[in-house]
């Protein structure tokens, strides 16, 4: 069984909005609508688990899901940190063979990326899409002076869905709670305990909507 955990606990700080960014509209529909629809349309996904802040559960059910006629198998409360929300989602996905973990504000994930993530997770145990940065990347010191220019061909900007064998990522998340380490994504959780993560070709259109500029691009992609 393949389960998709959609983590939608973001706030509107960088967006500059009071409303949580996953509920902002693109072409008349909430961002979260497009995200969930992508997984609903994928025949290889059996189960969708939506993770939102506890105080937003009723709003999400009534104003986002019901009003837009989209269904998820489970909607559960997240934690104060992203890794806690993912762990809650993993517990709700018990019995899965493969689990996909996806940002709720990446609404334009393609069916190909979802299918590829499942295929590579089955093959390697852990996988994520990534794209080469378009800009030159610099390493800076505390005074903001450039100290190093990494080789761009060796860098990737990692996206979601990040896909794993369920037992692998569940055990890693269960153990990471007792570690004093800052976690930025789920591939990092897997790698921390010695697991290799296969990075496959992502898509530049698979954007994460975080800033007002991203909304402009999102409107264009939604219209397409």
Automatic annotation (TrEMBL):
<dbReference type="Pfam" id="PF01128">
    <property type="entry name" value="IspD"/>
</dbReference>
<dbReference type="InterPro" id="IPR034683">
    <property type="entry name" value="IspD/TarI"/>
</dbReference>
<protein>
    <recommendedName>
        <fullName>2-C-methyl-D-erythritol 4-phosphate cytidylyltransferase</fullName>
        <ecNumber>2.7.7.60</ecNumber>
    </recommendedName>
</protein>
<keyword id="KW-0414">Isoprene biosynthesis</keyword>
<dbReference type="InterPro" id="IPR001228">
    <property type="entry name" value="IspD"/>
</dbReference>
<feature type="site" description="Transition state stabilizer">
    <location>
        <position position="21"/>
    </location>
</feature>
<keyword id="KW-0548">Nucleotidyltransferase</keyword>
<comment type="pathway">
    <text>Isoprenoid biosynthesis; isopentenyl diphosphate biosynthesis via DXP pathway; isopentenyl diphosphate from 1-deoxy-D-xylulose 5-phosphate: step 2/6.</text>
</comment>
<feature type="site" description="Transition state stabilizer">
    <location>
        <position position="14"/>
    </location>
</feature>
<dbReference type="GO" id="GO:0019288">
    <property type="term" value="P:isopentenyl diphosphate biosynthetic process, methylerythritol 4-phosphate pathway"/>
</dbReference>
<dbReference type="InterPro" id="IPR029044">
    <property type="entry name" value="Nucleotide-diphossugar_trans"/>
</dbReference>
<feature type="site" description="Positions MEP for the nucleophilic attack">
    <location>
        <position position="208"/>
    </location>
</feature>
<dbReference type="InterPro" id="IPR018294">
    <property type="entry name" value="ISPD_synthase_CS"/>
</dbReference>
<comment type="similarity">
    <text>Belongs to the IspD/TarI cytidylyltransferase family. IspD subfamily.</text>
</comment>
<feature type="site" description="Positions MEP for the nucleophilic attack">
    <location>
        <position position="152"/>
    </location>
</feature>
<dbReference type="GO" id="GO:0050518">
    <property type="term" value="F:2-C-methyl-D-erythritol 4-phosphate cytidylyltransferase activity"/>
</dbReference>
<keyword id="KW-0808">Transferase</keyword>
<dbReference type="InterPro" id="IPR050088">
    <property type="entry name" value="IspD/TarI_cytidylyltransf_bact"/>
</dbReference>
<comment type="function">
    <text>Catalyzes the formation of 4-diphosphocytidyl-2-C-methyl-D-erythritol from CTP and 2-C-methyl-D-erythritol 4-phosphate (MEP).</text>
</comment>
């Amino acid at each position: 069984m393949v389960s998709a955990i959609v983590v939608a606990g973001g706030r509107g700080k960088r967006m500059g909005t009071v409303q949580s960014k996953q509920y902002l509209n693109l072409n008349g529909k909430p961002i979260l609508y497009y995200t969930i629809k992508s997984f609903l349309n994928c025949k290889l996904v059996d189960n969708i688990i939506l993770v939102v802040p506890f105080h937003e559960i009723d709003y999400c059910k009534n104003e986002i899901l019901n009003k837009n006629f989209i269904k998820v198998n489970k909607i559960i409360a997240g934690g104060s940190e992203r890794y806690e929300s993912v762990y809650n989602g993993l517990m709700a996905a018990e019995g899965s063979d493969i689990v996909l973990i996806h940002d709720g504000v990446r609404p334009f994930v393609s069916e190909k990326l979802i299918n590829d993530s499942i295929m590579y997770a089955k093959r390697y145990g852990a996988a994520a899409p990534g794209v080469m940065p378009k800009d030159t990347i610099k390493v800076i010191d505390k005074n903001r002076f450039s100290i190093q220019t990494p080789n761009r061909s060796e860098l990737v900007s990692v996206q979601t869905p990040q896909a794993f064998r369920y037992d692998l990522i569940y055990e890693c998340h269960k153990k990471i709670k007792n570690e004093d380490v800052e976690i930025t994504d789920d591939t990092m959780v897997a790698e921390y305990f010695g697991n290799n993560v296969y990075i496959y070709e992502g898509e530049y259109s698979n954007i994460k909507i975080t800033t007002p500029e991203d909304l402009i691009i999102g409107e264009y992609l939604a219209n397409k």
